[in-house]
Amino acid sequence: ESSFCSTDPKYAKPFAKATFFSDYRNVLPTISFPSLILQSRSDSLAAVEVGKYMHEKTPLSSLEVIDAHGHCLHMTNPVTIAEKIEQFALNEELLDLFPSLLLVSDLRSGSIDYCNKDALEFLGSSREDMAGSNVSSIISRASLIFFESYVRPSL
């Protein structure tokens, strides 16, 4: 907050214009996928009521009010924020609501930890059958080569 005032005007002016002269409240009810709203309990830029409003207007949203000060929670409370995001991201009930194929795996071993309902339907399998199986058993040879050549070495 005080740091925002010391930001280079070259960057602060376009940011302020985009932030303070835009209003997207009408979009909130159209969001059709699960979303997580992280709100600081003590934020001089956005009061808790702002987070509550967004939560009330956004279907499938979850609101987490973090006992913290300031607006940039990811910078002031990174561990707490990472834990909240991980908890949200691993909620299987929410993952099944995503309108796409979703597969969660251990990238190092290739072991499949979770498939959402769309992925299971596409693969013609059950959660029990997929749990613990290896990604290499469901992807094409070309995809496996790409993974082994480009993805795994960067891990």
Your description of this structure?
The chain is an alpha+beta fold and 155 residues long. 44% of the residues lie in helices and 15% in strands. The protein is built from nine helices and four strands, in the order ααβαβαααββααα. It has a two-stranded parallel ribbon with strand order 1-2. It has a two-stranded antiparallel sheet with strand order 3-4. The longest helix is centred in the N-terminal third of the chain and has 12 residues, at 9-20. The two termini are 36 Å apart. The mean pLDDT is 86.
State the main characteristics.
alpha+beta, 9 helices, single chain, 4 strands, 155 residues, two-stranded antiparallel ribbon, two-stranded parallel sheet
> What structural class is derived from the secondary structure elements?
alpha+beta
Radius of gyration of CA atoms, rounded to a whole number: 20 Å
Kindly state the percentage of residues in helix.
40-55%
E-strand count:
4
**Global morphology:** elongated
Main β-sheet, in a few words?
2 strands, parallel
Q: Please trace the helix and strand order, writing H or E for each element.
A: HHEHEHHHEEHHH
Alpha carbon gap, first and last residue: 36 Å
Mean pLDDT: 86
How many separate helices? 9
Note poorly predicted spans: none
What is the strand content? 15-25%
Which strand order spans the largest sheet, edge to edge or round the barrel? 1-2
